[in-house]
Design a protein that fits this description.
flat, five-stranded antiparallel β-sheet, alpha+beta, 5 helices, two-stranded antiparallel sheet, SH3 type barrels
Length: 158
């Protein structure tokens, strides 16, 4: 009898610790988990919109997280805390937001707002905006830019 009570208590502690583990969800089109708590720190892994990560620690505006076996730091602006809602387990899943909707939200537009804006501003060159958004810079190029410009992150290492 005593052994059953001990196993039950241990099981409850395990369930409570899993439920209490903080989770965060990526709310940007993609987020970068970095090696250190700096925006220019080398990336560990890129995480797409909507993915859930386990929060391991918090230091200021930086969270130490784990995602698919990788650990590193992510800024709080790229994620939102996930609340455990047991009632959602009983109901159907809510509609997820598409990647296109996330991209438009990043521009500040919904499809309806963009359509109205295009109608009022036919001279607007969306192809140029798309070109700028499509421009990619490697981490090596970013590090060279930071180094050549003698840039320093506030509160970060040099």
């Amino acid at each position: 009898m005593r052994r059953k009570a001990w196993l039950l208590a241990a099981g409850l502690v395990l369930v409570a610790s899993v439920a209490m583990a903080a989770s965060v969800k990526v709310i940007t089109q993609q987020a970068v988990i970095r090696k250190d708590k700096r925006f220019f720190a080398p990336p560990v892994v890129t995480v797409p919109y909507g993915e859930i990560m386990q929060e391991l620690a918090r230091e200021g505006d930086w969270l130490r997280v784990q995602y698919r076996g990788s650990q590193g730091w992510i800024h709080v602006s790229a994620v939102e805390e996930q609340k455990l809602d047991l009632s959602s387990l009983m109901t159907s899943k809510a509609k997820e937001t598409s990647q296109d909707e996330v991209a438009l939200a990043g521009k500040g537009f919904t499809p309806e707002v963009e359509k109205a804006f295009r109608a009022k501003n036919p001279q607007m060159r969306y192809d140029l905006v798309d070109g700028v958004e499509g421009y990619r810079v490697s981490m090596e190029e970013v590090h060279l830019f930071v180094q050549d410009g003698w840039l320093r992150e506030p509160g970060g290492a040099s």
